[in-house]
Design goal:
Helix content: 25-40%
CATH superfamily of one domain: NAD(P)-binding Rossmann-like Domain
Radius of gyration: 19 Å
Number of helices: 11
Structural class: alpha/beta
Distance between the termini: 28 Å
CATH architecture of one domain: 3-Layer(aba) Sandwich
Largest sheet: 7 strands, parallel
Length: 295
């Protein structure tokens, strides 16, 4: 971390908090938003200047916090009405005179379906209507704001996130893991600790542009469940064909996109060496260290 960094985070959720907690001692100041007042109180006790922002109305205190910030990280998904941060606090960002960099956490879902082919940041996204389309629209809106404000914007497109409390080991232990087989289907993933170090690299370099945050090993989802079961010494759940699986519309939609996501720019331009280049290293570390439950 290059001091002094005064960071404000819209959306102190799973990934953003992992980054903040890994770098907090190096930050001159850290502020951010959450939806829940109880969570805000807990984070304030950790030294994070936390403001409640429900996404429905502007929050008192955000403008003043942004005025302190040198860097801003956005980790709030757009809704059907658009990006809530831009809807309520775009003017505050535009007038934040100390702001030097913006990071926006997006998703590899914006690429859409490429039939299992490799995709990179150079390809034109063609997302399915719905969440991924809204994400792409939000990326464009943030790009326009950054251009107008005259600051670099790093758009970090994140693959399937796993880590403590969110992984196949916990799903197996909770009886929720399923081995759904759709021939040819692959997904990329990324450990939350690697997301944290990627954000840190982008911030330190004041990176500008689009970067894929994904592991080295796109793999069929059933393989991850089988590997987790092997680590735990338990039998994997029976394989179920995608056609026969009882999935919610949201869960089924994830299988509509099939692609292999390249992380070459993450490694080459941001200099990130993944701690967990595949799900095997990531799950093994979670199991070995005993923090897979996230307690």
């Amino acid at each position: 971390m290059i001091p002094p960094v005064r960071l404000f985070v819209f959306g102190l959720g799973y990934s953003a908090l992992a980054f903040v907690r890994s770098t907090q001692r190096q930050l001159a100041w850290i502020g951010g938003t959450v939806r829940d007042p109880d969570k805000a109180a807990r984070l304030r006790s950790e030294g994070i200047d936390t403001i409640v922002f429900d996404g429905e109305t502007a929050s008192v205190g955000v403008a003043g916090a942004l005025a302190k910030a040198s860097h801003c990280l956005v980790s709030i998904a757009p809704g059907e009405g658009g990006d809530p941060v831009l809807a309520h606090h775009a003017d505050d960002i535009m007038t934040a005179e100390n702001l030097r960099w913006i990071g926006y956490l997006s998703t590899v879902g914006v690429y859409g379906d490429y039939g299992g082919a490799w995709v990179s940041e150079r390809l034109t996204p063609h997302p399915r209507p719905g969440r991924s389309t809204r994400r792409l629209q939000a990326e464009a809106a943030w790009s326009a704001l950054a251009d107008n404000r005259g600051v670099p914007l790093a758009i970090l497109r994140i693959a399937g996130i796993y880590g403590p409390g969110r992984n196949a080991l916990k799903s197996l232990a909770d009886g929720k893991a399923r081995r759904i087989v759709k021939p040819g289907q692959v997904f990329n993933r990324i450990h939350v600790d690697d997301i944290a170090q990627a954000i840190a690299a982008a911030l330190n370099k004041k990176a500008d542009g689009i970067f894929n945050l994904a592991d080295d090993a796109p793999a069929p989802p059933q393989d991850i469940v089988s590997f987790a079961a092997e680590l735990m010494g338990v039998p994997p759940p029976p394989a179920v064909s995608f056609e026969e699986a009882d999935l919610s519309p949201m869960a089924r939609s994830f299988y509509g996109d099939n692609k292999r996501v390249s992380n070459r720019r993450l490694r080459k331009d941001l200099g990130v060496a993944l701690r967990y280049p595949t799900y095997r290293e990531g799950l093994t570390a979670l199991w070995r260290d005993g923090n897979w439950r996230g307690d």
